Amino acid sequence: MSDESEVMSTDIMSTGDRLIYMANQIARNLAAQRDADVQTAEHIRKYWTGAMRARLQELAAERPDALSPIAAQALRRIAV
Amino acid sequence: MSFSRETDHGTPAAIATGKSVTLTIDGQSVTLPEGTSIMRAASLTGGSIPKLCATDSMDSFGSCRLCLVEVEGRNGYPASCTTPVAEGMVVRTQTERLKQLRRGVMELYISDHPLDCLTCGANGDCELQDQAGAVGLRDVRYGYDGATNMGQAKDQSNPYFDFDPSKCIVCSRCVRACEEVQGTFALTIEGMGFDSKVSPSQGEDFLGSECVSCGACVQACPTASLIEKSVVEVGTPDRAIVTTCAYCGVGCTFRAEMRGEELVRMVPWKDGKANRGHSCVKGRFAWGYAQHQDRILNPMIRASVSEPWREVSWEEAIAHTASEFRRIQGKYGTRSIGGITSSRCTNEETFLVQKLIRQGFGNNNVDTCARVCHSPTGYGLSQTFGTSAGTQDFDSVMQADVILVIGANPTDGHPVFASRMKKRLRQGAKLIVMDPRRTDLVKSPHVEAEHHLPLRPGTNVAMLTAMAHVIVTEKLYDEAFIRERCDWDEFTDWADFVSEAVRSPEAIEPLTGVKADEVRAAARLYATGGNGAIYYGLGVTEHSQGSSTVMAIANLAMATGNVGREGVGVNPLRGQNNVQGACDMGSFPHEFSGYRHVSDTATRALFEQAWGVSLDAEPGLRIPNMLDAATDGTFKGLFVQGEDILQSDPNTHHVAAGLAAMECVVVQDLFLNETANYAHIFLPGSTFLEKDGTFTNAERRIQRVRQVMAPLNGYADWEIVQLVANAMGLDWTYDHPAQIMDEIAALTPTFAGVHYDRLEAEGSLQWPANDAAPDGTPTMHIDGFVRGKGKFVVTDYVPTDEKTGPRFPLLLTTGRILSHYNVGAQTRRTANTAWHPEDRLEIHPSDADNRGLKDGDWVTLRSRAGETTLRALVTERVAPGVVYTTFHHPETQANVITTDYSDWATNCPEYKVTAVQVMASNGPSDWQRDYADQARTSRRIAPLEAAE
Ligand code: SF4
Ligand code: SF4
Ligand code: SF4
Ligand code: FES
């Protein structure tokens, strides 16, 4: 089977990838709300630890394209 | 409490009409509700009419003729169990003529009954014996020589009870219990007259029949014909203590019937408001794990997980736990440790664990296994209604006209509630089932769903929004309710959103795979069929849009005005016994007890004052974040009480990697569970039989757990947490869980009125219980939503990122079955394995054919996360393209397959959707073999060195 190696990968995302994934996922699910960026920011502030938020800020700086527009906008609203 | 049987009034209470009648019984004038039987009337006024076929858990039947009475002005001798009281009636229950007649009836019964009373297991606990005494039978004129039914073979196939036909008096109480109370219809009376006998359907034995071993028939049987094996073995009980089942969120209460220090049986308590005298096989019979030889009774420690365990004293284990946690915090910082509370432990224990973490660890790194089941319920219902809990009590279902069951399989997961629901359905309520699988409710004896919507896993939000589309565009919503109770602007925003053509049933049919007509019909029925009640389970929450689905459900209920009275509402069916309580008690990293955010200064000040420390205003880590932080090297120590995250959490590889990266994992549990394979300290836990406390069930009902025996491990779990806390420098001085509850009440507004003396007096209380609601709150949001105005939230369907494709063409969804519980740590250690010795993979015949698979074949189940093997069960219960398995057995390791995808709002894992491939296999996978080896090595306990 050609895809054997991928099948057997344990598929553990790195923490950085997961934080970005989570932020984008929150933003995507709140996208239909009137104030999606405000709500995304509030959600992250309410449920993430300070260390996670700080790490996301770093990641956003390192990989500017990784975050969706709503997530990026939300992040700008969050003062860590 | 000493032993006395619960009073049996012979027939159930009359259905309330508000009218009463006055009559005279044996010279005494009594006034009772219309519809009451003479038998019940006599019993309620202190009398007792002999009876055999009547019992107050079911409707009267009138077959034994032992309960005859005389009624002035009426001919003959009516049966008191089937004759209702009437105005002015004059009844005599004890006359010479009646005595003669009753003796005659009794004689007939006894002449065909073995008279081995002295050696019979039910001696002293037999109604036939009692009634023979009551009617004064001293002699049997017919002799015992004629044809009898004695000597027939016993059916001992059920692991928990025996059926001895020779002792059967064919009163048919068992048959009626199975029908009316349980709703399974497993028993029939075969044959006629003298030859008639009770039989599980189709003449099978009990184990092979439809019987689900709920025990209702055993409880109903007036003789030793159906009897618990434990009564035969241990003897009849001599005392009883009322306590609460520690398995599921129904929260059945039981009389733990003891003989000396030995538990003889658990008998469902008639006064239990959650179960009303019924039970399922787990709570009724599967308590043997409490004494199982696998239980660990001594604390153990080890320096590394590759070493065998070393048994140590409690003092050493506790001191070592405290010093390890303090060492780690010294080296890696205050936030480098955390803990996990258990939905199986009591409220008091859970409260103490989160207190230990917030007060003692100095951070908010506390989470609970509710993370992996109902965290979206808390989030979704608090957003929309303002409380993180269901809206109704269980009794409410008896007022429902349309019952919508979404992603729940109550007959397996919440069996006692399912029996109530089925009763209501037999009375004529309509049923809609939204579930990828054809669950038992869809079609079972005398119950059939009006609509089954077998949607593709992962499309709940699209489906519920399409129902909303129908309700809004066809103007079936309740405008008066919405205007009064909800924010009208938010409603119109939502209504505009759901009305868009892309959200119609027709537009989403290709996604969900469900015919648009069927969706329209179901939506119309829910909106217009009278009281509409929604019940949902993990098939709603365990998705990447779990929270959105809960909000979509709440939207539907608000739009149709189905909130705030009996018979309606939004009802999460909670998995574990105390998952509601664990959430209430502040087990989540962002909130204190009563769902108050840690950043709220006033709440923090309250706790700071009570606990004498300053508290962290930052939310802590959730379980998956703890595991990430561990692999990153910033999280090093974990205290896990009563949970097995390695087996129950998704993506086992991820959990294992996280645990392996920690320096100190402390597991407090009954058994060396899978998580303990990665632990450095093991603190033996106690069972629910060994401690005092409270559990809170899915109806927000707080009920007492009472100690019936001393803890085999030496301490109740709350005491162990207190020892750890004090070793870490705190100053806790609880002598009894009642004091912990007092502290909870003082710090939590919704619990302000909850104290043990109130619970003793009331039996149970449903929170909120406080000055505003001194007797608790069976139905929520009656005059208004807790948050003020009900909030409609736009729920956009976002497909999961877990996609099928050529390599993983099938969707795996997971669930549970009746006889096992969660990861099965308890039930696998009982005779319940008779029903489910292994996890099987359900696969549709066409998918099986394509792969050349037959029923019972070993198959490899493979996802992007990993693979495992198990045996196939070929069945049409699952749709083509969908496969299904349970996760009760560690050998299967179903969570090796599940992925890290989770609910966007709460990180509740997406257990219900995993893209997989299935293929023939010839045995366990490498992972399973390696894992089994590692587990064996990890569970070694070093032999004790001889003491000098
Ligand atoms: S144990 Fe329950 S399901 Fe089985 S026959 Fe008795 S009443 Fe019916
Ligand atoms: S088994 Fe028991 S309950 Fe059933 S008919 Fe016989 S005596 Fe009655
Ligand atoms: S497992 Fe659930 S339904 Fe069964 S007895 Fe216990 S609480 Fe009741
Ligand atoms: S108890 Fe009334 S007829 Fe049997």
Overview of the molecule:
The complex is a heterodimer of chains A (80) and B (948). By secondary structure, chain A is mainly alpha-helical. In chain A, 69% of the residues lie in helices and 0% in strands. Chain A has helices at residues 4-8, 15-30, 36-47, 50-62, 69-77. Chain A starts with a helix and ends with a helix. Chain B is of the alpha/beta class and 948 residues long. Chain B is 29% helix and 16% strand. In chain B, the strands form 10 sheets. Chain B has a 7-stranded mixed beta sheet, covered by helices on one side. The longest helix of chain B has 19 residues, at 314-332. Chain A binds chain B through residues 3, 6-13, 15, 18, 22, 25-26, 28-29, 31-34, 43, 46-52, and chain B through 335, 493, 497, 544-545, 548, 589-590, 597, 599, 618-622, 625, 628-629, 631-632, 634, 651, 653-654, 657, 793-796, 798, 807, 862, 864-867, 899-900, 904-905, 907. The complex binds iron/sulfur cluster (3 copies) and FE2/S2 (inorganic) cluster. One iron/sulfur cluster binds at residues 168-174, 198, 220-223, 225-226 of chain B.
List the helices and strands and how they pair.
The complex is a heterodimer of chains A (80) and B (948).
Chain A: H1 4-8, H2 15-30, H3 36-47, H4 50-62, H5 69-77
Helix pairs in contact in A: 2-3, 2-4, 3-5
Chain B: E1 20-25, E2 28-33, H1 38-44, E3 70-71, E4 90-92, H2 96-111, H3 127-134, E5 161-163, H4 173-182, E6 187-190, E7 197-200, H5 216-220, E8 226-228, H6 229-234, E9 239-244, E10 253-259, E11 262-268, H7 281-285, E12 300-301, E13 310-311, H8 314-332, E14 337-341, H9 347-361, E15 366-368, H10 375-384, E16 402-406, H11 410-413, H12 415-426, E17 430-434, E18 443-444, E19 447-448, E20 451-453, H13 460-473, H14 479-485, H15 488-499, H16 505-512, H17 516-528, E21 532-536, H18 538-541, H19 546-559, E22 569-572, H20 579-584, E23 591-592, E24 596-597, H21 601-611, H22 623-632, E25 637-641, H23 645-648, H24 652-660, E26 664-669, E27 681-684, E28 693-696, E29 701-705, H25 717-727, H26 737-747, H27 756-762, E30 764-766, E31 810-815, E32 840-843, H28 845-850, E33 858-863, E34 867-874, E35 882-886, E36 914-920, H29 926-938
Parallel strand pairs in B: 1-4, 14-15, 14-25, 16-17, 16-21, 17-20, 21-22, 25-26, 26-27, 31-35, 32-34
Antiparallel strand pairs in B: 1-2, 3-4, 5-8, 6-7, 9-10, 10-11, 12-13, 12-27, 18-19, 23-24, 28-29, 29-30, 31-36, 32-35, 33-34, 33-36
Bound molecules: iron/sulfur cluster (3 copies) and FE2/S2 (inorganic) cluster.
